[in-house]
Each structure stands twice: as C-alpha cells, then as structure tokens.
Specification:
The structure holds two protein chains of two kinds.
Chain A (H helix, E strand, L loop, with lengths): L5 E10 L2 E11 L3 E6 L6 H8 L7 E6 L2 E2 L5 H6 L2 E4 L11 H5 L14 H14 L15 H14 L4 E5 L7 H16 L3 E5 L3 H7 L2 E6 L2 E7 L5 H9 L17 E10 L3 E9 L3 E5 L6 H8 L9 E4 L2 E3 L4 H6 L2 E4 L3 H5 L6 H6 L7 E2 L2 E2 L1 H15 L15 H14 L4 E5 L7 H16 L3 E6 L2 H7 L2 E6 L2 E7 L5 H8 L1
Parallel strand pairs in A: 3-8, 3-9, 6-7, 7-8, 13-20, 13-21, 16-19, 19-20
Antiparallel strand pairs in A: 1-2, 1-4, 4-5, 9-10, 11-12, 11-14, 14-15, 17-18, 21-22
Helix pairs in contact in A: 13-14
Chain B lengths: L2 H19 L1 H16 L6 H26 L7 H16 L14 H24 L5 H20 L9 H8 L1 E2 L2 E2 H19 L1 H11 L1 H6 L4 H27 L10 H11 L11 H20 L4 H25 L1
Helix pairs in contact in B: 2-13, 3-8, 3-11, 3-12, 3-13, 4-5, 4-6, 4-11, 5-6, 5-11, 7-11, 8-9, 9-11, 12-13, 12-14, 13-14
Classes of the chains: A alpha/beta, B mainly alpha.
C-alpha cells in the first residue's frame, strides 16, 4: 500500500498537570473521508491544533506521505498541504469574498499593486467549481452565516491542500447548503485528497465518511471502515458505554392548548405564522437557516416589535414587549448561539444560573447570596452539571455542560413553555441524550416544549408535531404519524 | 515524572498565579516599602493623609469610571463635568457679588445639591445618547467633554468663581477626627460602590450587561437602563469630585479637571478592570488610584521633575495591562 497522506502515532500533549491527549493515533488515506469522532473533551481539538502547527506536541510522531514532519507554526502545515476549515468563522466583514479567500497572498500586479481582476476571476472560478452560488465581488458583511461558511470552505480549498480538515463544517449550514458541501467533498475525494471530518452529527458521518477514528478521554479508542460499523456501536465507542436509545421520548401530548399564535408577522419578512402548542407536547420548528425560525421565537419572547398577529397563552391574549415580561408570563428561551447570546462567559456558573431570577433571589436591591448558592446548587444537581465549583467561570466548561447551565437558568424560572433554539448544537452524544431526557421530562410533567432544530434525526426522534418554515412562511404542519425525513426536506427547500 | 518535580511545578504555578492575581497590590506594597526607606518623610502621618487626599478626587472619578467600563463603555467627559458642576455649585455658594447668581450665597447644602444635579444631568445625557441612540460611548462622551467645558466657560463668563462660603468649603478643607473630608467622602463612595457591585441586584446586572449584553437581555435584564444608570453614576460622582475640588481650593476654576478622565481611566485599568467589559472590581480601582498617587508622591518627595512622573505613569498603565494580558493568555 502507498504511504498514507497523514499518519499520526502516539501523539501526546499536556497542559500543566492535565493530560489533554495521551495517545493520538490517526491514519488518513488518499481519496477518502475520515471521520474523527469523540465527545467534548475527547482530545479532538488538541489533536487538530497540533496537526495544524498551532500547538507543540509533547510526544509522538506525525508522518506526511511517509516522511516525519514537525510543524512549528500554522504556515508550516499549510506549506505541507494541510488546511483547515475552522468551526469559528473569521471573516473580514468589510472586504469582498475574493479578498477574504486570498487574504495575505493576493496576486501581485504592476509595482506590487494587487491584481484585483485576476483575484476576482480565480475566486469566482473556485466558487463556481464548487457550485457555490456566491459572487466573488460581494462583501462578506452582506452574506448569510451559511454563505460565510461556504466561503470559509472555498478558502481552505484554495490552498490546494491534499489534506483538508473540516471541523463541524455544517454547524451553521441548512440542508441545501450542506448538500452542496457534500457534493464538493465527493469531488475532492475523487481528486485523491484526504479529508478529516469532525462532526457531532452521526447521520452526516454515515452519509459521507469512508472510515472513522474514535477518541475518548484524550486517547485513541478504535478505528475502521464506516461500512463495518453500526450507528449504535459507534455511539458506544464514543461515550464508552452502551446507550439503549439515542432519543428519549416519554411524554404524551394532551389536547389542551397552551400557546396559540395567529397570523403573526415579524421583522418585515416573516408572515402569517399560525400554530398551536399543547400541554405535554414537543413541537418542533424545522426549516433552513434564514427561514424565520429564530425570528418567530424572538417575537414570542418580546425581543422584536409587534407587526401584527395575536398570541395567546393559556387562553389569554398576551403581547410581551420585553424578555422580562415574557419570563414573568412563563416563557423561557434557550437561544441558538450559546456563547453569543446564551452565556456570560466571563461570569461564573452561579451568576449564569441566577441571571434570569435576580429579583426573586434578592430582597430590595440586596442579593441574598444564600439563595443564589442554593439555586445554583439545585440546578447543578438536577442536571448533573460537571463543575468543580459554582464559582468557576463557565468558559472553562464543556459545550454540553455549558448548555446545561443555560437550561438550569431557565428551569429556575419555573417556565410553562420552553423555547429551545438548536438545543443540542455543538454538544456531544452523551450530553445530547441528557438534554433529550430533560426535554422529555419537562413535557411529561405538563410543560410545553417548542424546539428549533436543523437536524432531521432529532426532529424525527423527539417531535410530536412539526411546523416547517420556508422563506418566512409556514410551508406545512405535520403530525408525528406523517413525519419522514423526505417530507421535512421537501417542505423546507 | 517524579513527585518531587510535580511539587516544584505546583509551587511555581501557585507563585505565578499569586503574582498575577495580587500583582498590583504587590506593586503598591513594594513601592511603599521602597519609599519608606528612600525618604524618611514618606511614612509620616502627615504624608499619608496627604497622599490619601490627593487620591480622593481621582479615586471618586475612577469609581464612577469602573461602573462605565464594566459595561464596555468609557466616560471621557468626567473632567469637564468636574468643572461644570464646580462653577454651577460655586455660583450659589460665593460671597462675591459679581461671580454669584442673584441671592447668593445660598446654604451650602443647596449649592452642593445643584452641583450634584448638574453632574447627574450630564451623565444622563451621555447615557441616553449611548443606550438609546446607540452612539459609541467614546464619541458620545467625547462630545460631552467638549460641550460641558464650553458650558462651563459660558456659565462663568470665562472667569473663576471665587470666595466660597466656609460652609461650602467644609467638604474640601474640613476633617472628621483628623481625616480630611475628601478622604471621608471617598471612603464612603468606595464602600457604597463595593457593596453595589458585589452584593446588589444592580451590580449583578452591570456585570452581566458588560459580560454579554445579548445574554443579559434575553435573561430579562433591561440592558439599556443599566447602561443609562452607569453614566448617571459616573456623571454624579464627577459632579461630587468637582465640588470637592472647588471647596478645597476656595474657588471654582473653569480650567479645573482638564485631563482628569485619563487618570481615572488609568486607575481603573491598572486595577485590572477589562476594557472589554464584565470583569473587574472596585477594590482594584482603589489600588490603582492609590498606586498612581503614591508614585506621584514618592517622585515629588525625591524631587523628581513632574515631567518624569507622566512618563512613569504611562509605563505603569501599559505594564498593568500587559500583566492582565498574560493572565488571560494562561487561562
């Protein structure tokens, strides 16, 4: 067999006394998509940063085409034909797509002037080749999040790398854009490139990957061909124990309507939204990025002005003008972007849990620290949040635990209706399951859950009914009996 | 790895952590120790009182500035508000017939109230422009810096307001059990601010609004109101500082307070409060303000030219932030 594009063995890294990676092992063959799986804290990120030359290793061997290599800085890795599409986007908003793609390596023209014509032409050719419908001359700030992600992908490919690392590339993409990405991946594969694919979404891994490697607790657990593994056994490898069911759904919806929305308009382009949510029910909102799902939630929660339509909660007409009123009315809103709009990252676990209940936890202006500590402790126990102390900054917690802190904040308000916007994005399989358990229990106890999700599996697994949105309008409402992946995708696109 | 090296590593890590956490306090103590040996006059009661008195005005401004910076803002207008509040309140408390307004001198309390209202009003305008009209704080308060200075000159006709009543001057020159009034007021402001930021609901809201305004808003906090309030606090404290300054010198000058905002910001930043919001303590600000005052005092005592003092203060600010950056890089 020819040399592997990339072969890593015994990679080791520790920070202070903490071992982040004890045995990183990975073999990437040409013309293949290789999924790197593992929960949060499994050592995937550490592994990738070392391979990319961002961090130094403490031990182990990296071979590129059979030759041992040592990258001291990211550009060394790029020169060796390894590029990465990072999870966090880093666009320069005021520059064009072409300028972003060729940032720092613009084609030079006369007297060192940037040759814009060539740059735009090359960028457009690249985008066209990938079938991305984006103009190279448009400004980054005019693009949607999904388009930005596609540009980031084009940029990584523009380096002509042989090894392409994709870290959660679809986390901001809708179904249609994800399909474009997968088509591009197929073409790269055909061209003999190797792709390291990192994703928490197992359905994607089974769709596009050829082989897998699993890390757990900073060490290699196993690898093999995707064709030889079942979804269940892969999950078991990732979490290290058998999972009986991926989804947990024990609630039974009633006929009692808790929230009724009629002809709601918002943000100028989301129109005529009508739906009902019932006691004990998990209602899902499905649709592409930018279909208006989050906008509906924001309107319900009093974060955008009333532009027509009626909302009634428990039979009473309501029109919340601020989140405060919505919270007092019994609503809770777990936002999509945990770091951007969910957590105060500089704050500790306690402060974050207590944030929506400051009034209840104070007497006059004086905060009652006893009450705050008790409240935080209660939520930490209730959700099994893994933290050494409630005085630690939340930025140090894993994605799953951070999400549980946000959930804890909202459960403390004792809500009647839970609005969840992509509640399991960026959390590992184990934590996902715990979040499903929380949703199911809440609904079973008589609460109403309304959940936005881009993951078809999650919607099929958890929802009693689904409202599908397309371009700011409802394109269909489906009962659980009518649900199938095909109908969802069909209605959304 | 042997247990021995592990222990050494732990000890070293702890020492670094300690140095970073208490670095500014250590610096303050170190400077004090050096000055105690370098100059026999430094550690005398009189000099200590003197240092505290010199800290008071900047300290009061810096405490207001701490609230503002915690919400990711900045208040460049405090120096001008010092002057404006000074001349307005002084015009009610002067015995001069030309500089005062009709009926002056009024009771000191009334004059002080007027100065406070001026400061609060200036802060309120800043706050409204920043929170409701979304003008960056730097620009909004830069505007106020100019406008309030202009209003000061207009109001006082470009001349100082002299001959303040003894009642009014008490807040600048009086003392309680030998402690000068400016220091007493500064201490009171400090303890109230300490309580508000660490124990009150408003304090929690300030940290949340600065740490992540979006998350704070979703959690039901009226972020705009919190922002408005921090500028009102900063403006009110600037008014208070302006009156103490006028009372101490016996007349309100139209040129009072020029560049005071820079010292206030310096004290906050040296004290470890992050300009990106959500992180910082008023105790840090106190130490920052004391460090600036002690360094100035020490250089004075040693006969160093005041020009050098500015250079040293500049170095201090940058060094403090470098230390802060190192801390963030580690975590």
């Amino acid at each position: 067999m020819a040399d592997a594009l990339l072969e890593v063995n015994g990679l080791r890294k520790q920070f202070g006394g903490v071992v982040a990676l004890s045995n990183g092992r990975f073999v990437l063959q040409p013309g293949s998509v290789h999924a790197l799986c593992g929960g949060n804290g499994a050592g995937k990120s550490t592994f990738l940063t070392i391979v990319m030359g961002i961090q130094d290793r403490d031990g182990g061997v990296i071979r590129r085409n059979g030759k041992e290599v040592h990258f001291e800085k990211p550009s060394d890795a790029l020169d060796a034909g390894i590029s990465i599409i990072e999870q966090e986007l880093s666009p320069v908003p005021a520059m064009s797509v072409a300028e972003n793609i060729y940032l720092g390596r613009e084609p030079a023209g006369f007297l060192g002037r940037i040759d814009f014509a060539t740059m735009n032409k090359n960028a457009q050719a690249l985008l066209d080749e990938l079938h991305f419908d984006i103009s190279a001359k448009s400004l980054m700030m005019d693009l949607t999040v999904a388009e930005l992600q596609l540009v980031e992908i084009a940029k990584a490919l523009s380096y002509d790398a042989e090894v392409i690392i994709m870290d959660e590339p679809t986390s901001a993409l809708g179904e249609a854009e994800a399909d474009q990405l997968f088509a591009a991946i197929e073409r790269l594969k055909a061209a003999g490139k190797g792709i390291i694919y990192v994703s928490h979404r197992l359905s994607e891994i089974f769709r596009i990957a050829d082989s897998y490697t699993v890390f757990r607790d900073g060490a290699f657990v196993g690898d093999g061909a995707i064709a030889d593994v079942t979804r269940e056994s892969l999950i078991q490898m990732i979490v290290g124990r058998p999972l009986t069911e991926e989804f947990i759904k024990e609630n039974t919806p009633t006929e009692e309507v808790t929230l009724k929305v009629q002809d709601l308009n918002t943000r100028g382009w989301v129109r005529d939204i009508s739906f009902e949510a019932r006691r004990g029910e998990i209602l899902a909102f499905y649709g592409l990025m930018g279909s208006g799902r989050s906008e509906v939630f924001e309107r319900l929660f009093g974060m955008s002005p009333n532009e027509g339509g009626t909302i009634s909660l428990f039979g009473q007409a309501v029109d919340f003008a601020s989140p405060k009123q919505a919270i007092d009315g019994g609503l809770a809103f777990v936002t999509e972007d945990r770091k951007g709009t969910g957590l105060v990252l500089s704050g500790d676990v306690r402060a974050n849990i207590c944030l929506a209940q400051l009034e209840q936890l104070s007497r006059g202006q004086a905060m009652q620290s006893r009450l705050e500590a008790d409240a935080a402790q209660k939520m930490i126990e209730m959700f099994g949040i893994k933290t050494a102390s409630d005085r630690l900054e939340v930025s140090g917690l894993s994605g799953g635990n951070q999400q549980k802190v946000v959930l804890g904040r909202w459960f403390l308000t004792n809500p009647k209706v839970l609005l969840l916007d992509e509640p399991t994005r960026g959390v590992d399989v184990g934590a996902k399951r715990e979040i499903y358990r929380i949703m199911s229990d809440f609904a079973a106890a008589g609460g109403t859950v309304i959940m936005i999700s881009s993951e078809t599996d999650e919607v099929l697994g958890m929802a009693d009914r689904v409202v599908v949105l397309r371009d700011g309008r409802i394109s269909g409402t489906l009962d659980r009996a009518q649900l199938s992946a095909e109908t969802l995708v069909h209605l959304a696109a | 790895m042997t247990a021995q090296t592990d222990k050494q590593r732990d000890a070293r890590a702890m020492a670094t952590e300690f140095a970073q956490k208490y670095g500014i306090l250590l610096a303050l103590v170190l400077v004090c120790v050096i000055l105690t040996f370098a100059n026999e006059y430094f550690l005398t009661g009189r000099n200590i009182i003197n240092v505290l008195r010199q800290t008071a005005i900047n300290g009061i401004l810096a405490i207001g500035m701490t609230f503002v910076i915690l919400t990711r803002g900045i208040d460049l207008s405090v120096g001008s508000v010092v002057a404006l509040a000074g001349v307005v309140s002084a015009s009610l408390a002067t015995t001069s017939t030309t500089a005062g307004i009709a009926g002056a001198p009024y009771p000191a309390l009334l004059a002080l109230l007027a100065g406070l209202i001026v400061g609060v009003a200036a802060g309120w305008v800043n706050g409204i422009i920043v929170s409701r009209y979304r003008v960056p704080a730097f620009v909004a308060t830069l505007g106020m810096l100019s406008a309030a200075r202009g209003l000061t000159l207009l109001y006082a006709g470009g001349k100082p307001v002299p001959a303040l009543t003894d009642g009014y001057r008490y807040i600048g020159t009086g003392d309680i059990l030998g402690v000068p009034m400016p220091v007493v007021i500064f201490a009171a402001v400090f303890f109230v601010a300490l309580w508000v930021l660490s124990q009150s609901r408003f304090g929690r809201q300030v940290y949340a609004a600065g740490g992540n305004p979006h998350a704070a808003r979703v959690s039901g906090i009226n972020v705009n109101r919190v922002k408005l309030m921090v500028y009102v606090i900063s403006g009110g404290l600037a008014g208070l500082a302006g009156m103490i300054l006028a009372a101490r010198t016996g007349s309100a000058l139209t040129q009072a307070g020029i560049a005071y905002e820079l010292d206030a910001i310096a004290a906050v930043v040296i004290g470890g409060t992050s300009l990106s919001g959500g992180v910082g303590k008023v105790t840090g600000t106190l130490i920052g303000a004391l460090l600036i005052a002690v360094v100035n005092n020490g250089l004075d005592l040693m006969g160093v030219e005041s020009y050098y003092q500015q250079v040293i203060k500049g170095g201090l600010i940058v060094a403090a932030v470098m230390l802060d950056q190192a801390r963030h890089k580690q975590s």
